[in-house]
Amino acid sequence: MSSFDFEEIHRSLGYLFFDGMRFTLTLTFLAALGGVVLGTILAIIRQSGSRLLSSIAAGYVNLVRALPLVLVIFWFYFLVPYLGQWLTGATRPVHVGGFASALITFIAFEAAYFSEIVRAGIASIPRGQEAAAMALGLRSSQAMRYVILPQVFRIMLPVLLTQTIVLFQDTSLVYVLSITDFLGAAAQIAERDGRLVEMYSFVAVVYFVFSFTASQGVRRLRAHIAVPH
Amino acid sequence: MGYHWNWGIFWEPSPEGNGTYLDMLIQGLWTTLLTAACAWAIALTIGTVIGVLRTVPLRAVQWVAVAWIELFRNMPVLVQLFLWYFVFPEVLPPSWGVWLKQLPNAAFLTAVVGIGFFMSARVAVQISSGIEALPSGQRAAATALGLTTAQTYRYVLLPMAFRIVLPPMTSDLLSTIKTTSIALTIGLGELTARARAMQEFSYQVFEAYTAATLVYLAINLILTLAARWLEARVRLPGYGKA
Fold it and tell me: Is B196 exposed, middle or buried (0-12, 13-18, 19+ CB in 10 A)?
């Protein structure tokens, strides 16, 4: 092995961060946002009175959670163009770019995991809260919106953020679609210049620093916002 | 829709020339199960040791355990696989590196070690939180009976902790199986890789992925039921659900 070439990393920083890491962070942020929204909707549907809707939501969540993310990425990569065709009434499958395909995949996938977190949060709120909201004359949807969910998000914020750190790491799997995320950018340079050791070591260090820092932040937050019993 | 369904595709011979597409997927399934089983054995062994070390009343030892957990938890598993596959052989003495790269089933071994170590961090967290969930009186009682620290863990703490963490450990086992699919990036022919190959050969995208999906669902169902049976089997009178 030739000696470790720091200059190679230095030369690649622009591409790695402005192209790669920007993609990774944008995807993480938007997928987390979309995943929490869709996940909350799924969790509410599961609490709802409708037997049919709640079993459809439960079926979706359990299906997605049983599958490897890689398989789900492949599924959506081929499915999204057909869904687009169906939604827009086009005559042929719609071309969807790499970013949109990845974003839809991660929102759909993470929603299942976020929904379980929100559901656990809803279950942790004492039943009396809902009863009290009803007694005050709130409708069931208002009780959810103004009484239950604000507490759920407060209690579950650390868990939601931890899941987002997992999501941040999982976005590296868009590698299988040859997309230029942080890992993808590094892989391209690694193969072009034959510098696999430098690039993959650097990628590992950067992911570690980001995830470790974020998880320490979550730990501090957990202590800070803990609801006194 | 412009998609041509052909569910008979599974009985057609694959262009690899050693059986049908169905045979191809079944081979993938065995590779998935074998890889996951070996990785799980590593994860369980190392994870238990690290989980115990994290609860041992010695600062330095706890620090080592925490460092292990944070190291393997904070890198994407795909990056960890690349480190083992591309970087590790290069940092070894040259002759070892060459030997390693020439192993016939390097992708399999890399997946087993990489996923095993990755999951060991999660198992360690489960085990240590299981031990910490026990009332401190258990440890005190064991000490009062004259048990050594090792005996306390072996006969008092671990048997209880394992029972407590059985449900989350089941989902870690299922994660291990799902995670093996990531090894397709280093050329392991596991189930998802074989479904992908089938899709590339035959263009029957949705049949291939539907088959893989059904197999993963079946694995999930069988293991969930098995875990439920095991939980009932090892439940102690007076602890847990009646």
Answer: buried
Report chain B residues whose CB lies below 8 A from the CB of A200.
79, 82-83, 86-87
ipTM of the complex: 0.91
Radius of gyration in angstroms for the set of CA atoms belonging to chain A, rounded to a whole number: 21
Q: Count of alpha carbons within 13 Å of B50, Cβ hemisphere only?
A: 26
Q: What is the DSSP letter of B20?
A: B
H helix runs in A48-148, sequence order:
51-66, 69-88, 98-124, 127-135, 140-142
* Residue B141 domain flag: yes
pLDDT given at position B101 = 81
Of A101, A128, A113, give the one whose Cα is nearest residue A66. Answer: A113
* pLDDT tens-digit readout, B20-65: 999 999 999 999 999 999 999 999 999 999 999 999 989 999 999 9
CA B145 to chain A, closest CA, distance in angstroms equals: 35
Residue A57 touches partner B, C-beta closer than 8 Å:
no
For the record, the structure tokens of B117 come out as 């170590």
Same domain, B160 and B219: no
Contact A172 B212 (CB under 8 A): no
DSSP-derived secondary structure for A14-46: HIIIIIIIHHHHHHHHHHHHHHHHHHHHHHHHH
Distance, in Å, from the CA atom of A182 to the CA atom of A17, rounded to the nearest integer, reads: 7
In a domain, B104, yes or no: yes
**Residue B99, domain member (yes or no):** yes
**Average pLDDT score, chain A:** 92
Q: Is A71 on the interface with B (CB under 8 A)?
A: yes
- B110 and B209 housed in the same domain: no
Residue B122 neighbours by CB under 8 Å, 6+ apart: B43, B47, B73, B172, B175
What domains are there in chain A, each with its CATH number? 6-225 (1.10.3720.10)
